[in-house]
Amino acid sequence: MENLKNRVCFVDVDDVCAKLAPVWLGRYNVDYDDHLTEENITDWNIHEFTKPECNLKIYSYLKDPTLYDEVLPTLGALEGVNKLREMGYRVLFATSCPVEVAGRKFHWLKQYDFIKKERDYIEIRDKSLLKGEYMIDDNYDNVQGFSGYGYLMKAPWNIKYKWHHRAENWEDFIKKMKEYVGKGM
């Protein structure tokens, strides 16, 4: 594992580690008397799936500092992050968020024991600027623009994209990462 000493894996937070969509959509559904689910969202532009009277207002929910009070970890995420660390990777959480919730998202990661060192958290809108070997994200644009191996975590909003590095879930991603370690990549 000596050759992995300086390897980095960037990990997105929302809907990769933190199950944000159910809480976000739940608040929208209550306010707009709708029944929108994750499965209904087949594109990154979520406002296209909301009622017309909501439209772009859907993004205002993301500015509510209490949003993360209800968010739970994605199944297998903490175990997956810890496996990456055991494999010798430095895990850096790279996320985009409104300033109103930036501190709350960091606190959420600490609360659920994802963050080991404060320096392992990066707020960034343009993830193509990140330089490293691996990334796991649910946004096609982020993995496509990444200079290393960008893995797309399966979500209804990214299924339409043809992408060669995909993970069904955290268990699948770790399995693929172990295969790379075994090949000396």
What CATH architecture of the largest domain would you give?
Answer: 3-Layer(aba) Sandwich
Q: Give the fraction of residues assigned to helices.
A: 25-40%
Radius of gyration: 17 Å
**Runs with pLDDT <50, length 5+?**
none
Could you name the CATH homologous superfamily of the largest domain? HAD superfamily/HAD-like
- Count of the separate structural domains: 2
CATH fold-level label of the largest domain: Rossmann fold
Q: What would you note in describing this structure?
A:
32% of the residues are buried. The protein folds into two domains: 2-19 and 71-182, 3-Layer(aba) Sandwich (Rossmann fold); 20-69, no CATH class. Strand 4, helix 4 and strand 5 form a beta-alpha-beta unit. It has 185 residues and is an alpha/beta fold. The protein contains five helices and six strands; from the N terminus they run βααβαββαββα. The chain has helices at residues 20-32, 77-86, 99-111, 140-145, 170-182; strands at 8-11, 90-95, 121-123, 134-137, 149-153, 166-167. The protein has a six-stranded parallel sheet with strand order 3-2-1-4-5-6. Helices cover 30% and strands 13% of the residues.
